[in-house]
Amino acid sequence: MLDDDEDYFAVMLPDDVIEPTAAMSEMIRVRQEHGGSVLLAVEVDRAHVSNYGVFDIENTDEDSVKKVVGMVEKPAVEDAPSNLVATGRYLLDRAIFDALRRIEPGKGVEIQLTDAIDLLISEGHPVHVVVHDGIRHDLGNPAGFIPASVEFGLRHPKYGPALFRDFEEILEKYRPHYEEM
């Protein structure tokens, strides 16, 4: 729990790696300006929205800051209000604790943070998103984890050059197979 003089806290889910890492600083700035809770959002291909919490948003004076008017956990593509999705960085107001106590289990018969945030929105609690235009690695599934591992490996000053050569050999070996597809 928070001390009496603490109004908000950060949640950073480990299956999302965000670059550059200054996103939280921008979220704090938005919180200081607008109050309430601030979340990080990224745009995804509409075909993939059912994997995420999706924001229903309104524009603000800043292109990269949106007011959240609703949130849906893992909607069907046709039910998604946008293609802006939650990306594992939350700056949450202390009101979230009360909201979590008041919601019923949602998707997957679990208490969903998305549902608690949506409850706060419906009660007039200000919620905004910062739309991240940097890199996001989704480590929560193999299709995201493997490319992220490759990219981080290639960036490594000691192992990157050898890894690059290894990948060239591997790609050359499998190129004929994938060119036929």
TrEMBL record:
<keyword id="KW-0808">Transferase</keyword>
<dbReference type="Pfam" id="PF00483">
    <property type="entry name" value="NTP_transferase"/>
</dbReference>
<dbReference type="InterPro" id="IPR005771">
    <property type="entry name" value="GalU_uridylyltTrfase_bac/arc"/>
</dbReference>
<comment type="similarity">
    <text>Belongs to the UDPGP type 2 family.</text>
</comment>
<dbReference type="GO" id="GO:0003983">
    <property type="term" value="F:UTP:glucose-1-phosphate uridylyltransferase activity"/>
</dbReference>
<protein>
    <recommendedName>
        <fullName>UTP--glucose-1-phosphate uridylyltransferase</fullName>
        <ecNumber>2.7.7.9</ecNumber>
    </recommendedName>
</protein>
<dbReference type="GO" id="GO:0006011">
    <property type="term" value="P:UDP-alpha-D-glucose metabolic process"/>
</dbReference>
<keyword id="KW-0548">Nucleotidyltransferase</keyword>
<dbReference type="InterPro" id="IPR005835">
    <property type="entry name" value="NTP_transferase_dom"/>
</dbReference>
<feature type="domain" description="Nucleotidyl transferase">
    <location>
        <begin position="3"/>
        <end position="149"/>
    </location>
</feature>
<dbReference type="InterPro" id="IPR029044">
    <property type="entry name" value="Nucleotide-diphossugar_trans"/>
</dbReference>
